[in-house]
Amino acid sequence: MCSIDVTGAGAVLLNGQVTCDGFHRDYGFRVQTHIHDDHMDGFDTSKGLQTIYCTAPTRELLIADQNADLPHRSNLIAVEYGVWTEAGHSTFMLLPNGHMLGSAQVVLRSREGECVGYSGDFSVVEQPMKVDRLVLDSTCGIPKLTRKYSQEEAEEGLLNIVRRGLVEGPMFIQAARGTLHRAMMALTGNIADPILGSRRLLREVEVYRRFGQPITHIEAVDSEAGREAIESQRYVLMIGRKDRMPVDTSAATVVSLNAYVPDDRPVLCHSDRSYTVAITDHADFESTLGYVVATGASEVVTDGTRSRHAKKLASEIEARLGIAARCSSSRHTLEWGG
């Protein structure tokens, strides 16, 4: 029987062979589902001791973010969606999961034909994997995290705020990577004023463009064009991971992008210069349950290392769907339920 679990450091363990998004010394292979920080634990150690697989966009984003020796490493291997790849006595396949550019579901098949899988962080999944056992992201693991609005409505709300705010002065938009890039795509072609970002963000945007994602031209905040835009006070500054918020925000409208706001609408107004907009790259609670059903899994482990909702989600899956579920043990185990 194939084994699955999650270590305390967040490494998803599949069948004694493959870790996902974390390092374990007894596993020779790692799959990197995407590049968000909470999924990068032990990556530097993995570079020296494991063969690392990911999609081509994820590999390019890793290089854009970390650079160093990654372009030259033979053990950082890009694989295509939908292609079975050997890993020890098992094979695995990556499938899109709608979370961000290059992100993936992981399905691993044993020699006996049993399949286990890891959802990764996911949003709209057009092709759910088919598995016997599933490790499930638990970000939106409670019923109140069910959205009553669409992401299109949230994006339209952001666009309206930006258009109004630019009349008064600069806009600062702050978010995690992935979410920030989604916001840039929403703004593309819809505003005439310059969009600025850090050099790091520009490297990531270039990867998005290479893989066909429609993001408008962005100027480096410290470039001549960036300085001219700042002087004019008519610009949008995108603030991502590790980027510093400007010290003086008094003249700007500040927008934070977060998965949820405590309302039935996607926009929360704190003041005439401060907003939160519910743009997210995670499925909500009801969509998470729908995903579980679509995979056909008969047993589910909810990931308790990245969400405080994992125990509740496991109980909801059992109560609502009649599928055996438990929160991850957060320790190494070779036995289901160990």
Q: Your description of this structure?
A:
By secondary structure, the protein is of the alpha/beta class. It folds into two domains: 4-144 and 284-327, 4-Layer Sandwich (Metallo-beta-lactamase, Chain A); 151-277, Rossmann fold, CATH 3.40.50. Mean pLDDT is 91; it is low at 332-338. Helices cover 26% and strands 23% of the residues. Strands 7-8-9-10-11-19-20 form a seven-stranded mixed beta sheet, covered by helices on one side.
Number of strands: 20
Q: Can you tell me the overall shape?
A: globular
Distance between the termini: 13 Å
Query: What's the rounded overall pLDDT mean?
Result: 91
Binned, the helix content reads 25-40%
Major β-sheet strand ordering: 7-8-9-10-11-19-20
Beta percentage is 15-25%
Contiguous helical run count: 8
Q: What sequence of helices (H) and strands (E) makes up the elements?
A: EEEEHEHEEEEEEHEHEHEHEEEEHEHE
Main sheet specs = 7 strands, mixed
- The unreliable regions are 332-338
Could you tell me the radius of gyration in angstroms? Answer: 21 Å
User: CATH superfamily of the largest domain, called what?
Assistant: Ribonuclease Z/Hydroxyacylglutathione hydrolase-like
Tally of structural domains? 2
CATH fold topology of the largest domain: Metallo-beta-lactamase, Chain A
The CATH class name of the largest domain reads Alpha Beta
Specify the structural class.
alpha/beta
User: Would you identify the CATH architecture of the largest domain?
Assistant: 4-Layer Sandwich
Structural topology:
Blueprint: E1 4-6, E2 12-14, E3 18-20, E4 29-31, H1 43-49, E5 51-54, H2 56-66, E6 76-78, E7 85-87, E8 90-96, E9 104-110, E10 115-118, E11 133-136, H3 151-168, E12 171-174, H4 179-187, E13 195-197, H5 199-210, E14 219-220, H6 224-232, E15 236-239, E16 253-257, E17 267-271, E18 274-277, H7 285-295, E19 299-302, H8 310-321, E20 324-327
Parallel strand pairs: 3-4, 4-5, 5-6, 10-11, 11-19, 12-15, 12-16, 13-14, 13-15, 16-18, 19-20
Antiparallel strand pairs: 1-2, 2-3, 7-8, 8-9, 9-10, 17-18
